[in-house]
UniProtKB/TrEMBL annotation:
It comes from Salinarimonas ramus. This is Zn-dependent hydrolase. It comes from the Bacteria. Residues 1-23 form the signal peptide. GO terms for molecular function: hydrolase activity. Keywords: Hydrolase, Signal. The lineage of its organism: Bacteria, Pseudomonadati, Pseudomonadota, Alphaproteobacteria, Hyphomicrobiales. InterPro entries: RibonucZ/Hydroxyglut_hydro.
Length: 275
């Protein structure tokens, strides 16, 4: 497991001020007030179920699993975000914003569609962390960098977690995460309502490390991705079941609303290819 790079003092000092409620999935909502970064507002408790519907209200967003690590997030205002946009798995429409978490052939495009208004790469070819904070209509996309394994060593800031904010929701795509998130990362992320998590257990973070990270983040909804086979997905679900409810959407798309997120942390499996 690779390690996290120390954060700048401004962010690291914030991390020291928060407690890690590690044993319970309480998340990091208490950090928001102390964090000068403009992150999502505190979560409102809500009951109810996720629903499927064609039209989107202002407090709703559509999430579609395209395959592998690619999702399409669509806002009520007509803005769309494709995660891990690449040359192998793409949505059936040109997104407004395309994110690419790391420079790996199945996670980025060498020739993104020129009609995409914003192409956000999760690494900086010139070195140092990539920094993105883009607002288009009713959508904001920002990133938090993490590190990746490289042989027996570590490559710093080579992966990005992209956070899509719309309809009062904070949807975090964990990208090709290789290490457990530290308090500094959680402070930078702010509240996470929905986590899109790689669960292959080998190419990215191991299974127990991913479960630990998700419990630290405290999302109410986790959508698995990057699992390569149904058997591998089922192994992850079994390991996570003591900590999360398990649900299956029976479809590739779901409509999300903050006040209808499940009360107990839940893993929701969307239909579609996982490779």
């Amino acid at each position: 497991m690779t390690s996290a790079r120390p954060f700048p003092k401004r962010i690291a000092s914030l991390a020291l001020a928060i407690g890690m409620a590690f044993a319970a999935p309480t998340g990091v909502a208490a950090q928001d007030a102390a964090d000068p970064l403009r992150n999502c507002p505190p979560m409102l408790a809500g009951l109810g179920s996720l629903i499927h519907r064609a039209a989107l209200a202002e407090d709703e967003a559509a999430l579609t699993f395209v395959g592998h690590a690619t999702f399409l997030v669509e806002s009520a205002g007509g803005v769309s975000v494709a995660t891990d946009y690449n040359d192998y798995v793409r949505p059936d429409r040109v997104p407004t914003i395309a994110t690419m978490n790391r420079a790996h052939r199945t996670h980025f495009s060498v020739a993104p569609d020129p009609a995409i208004a914003h192409v956000l790469r999760g690494w900086n070819p010139e070195g140092g962390p990539a920094e993105h904070d883009v607002e288009v209509g009713d959508v904001r996309v920002r990133n938090v960098t993490t590190n990746t394994r490289s042989g027996m060593g570590t490559e710093y800031d080579e992966n990005s977690i992209f956070v899509v904010e719309t309809a009062g929701l904070c949807i975090a795509h964990l990208g090709h995460l290789h290490h457990v998130l530290e308090p500094e990362h959680l402070v930078a992320l702010g509240r996470v309502d929905v986590a899109l998590a790689p669960v292959d257990g080998s190419y990215t973070l191991d299974t127990q490390g991913m479960i630990e990270t998700l419990r630290r983040m405290g999302p109410r909804l986790v959508v698995p991705m990057h699992f390569f086979s149904q058997g591998r997905l089922e192994q992850f679900l079994e390991a996570a079941s003591p900590h999360f409810e398990i649900a299956r959407a029976g479809a590739a798309s779901v409509i999300l609303s903050r006040d209808r997120l499940p009360d107990r942390p839940t893993i929701l499996v969307l239909d579609g290819p996982g490779r």
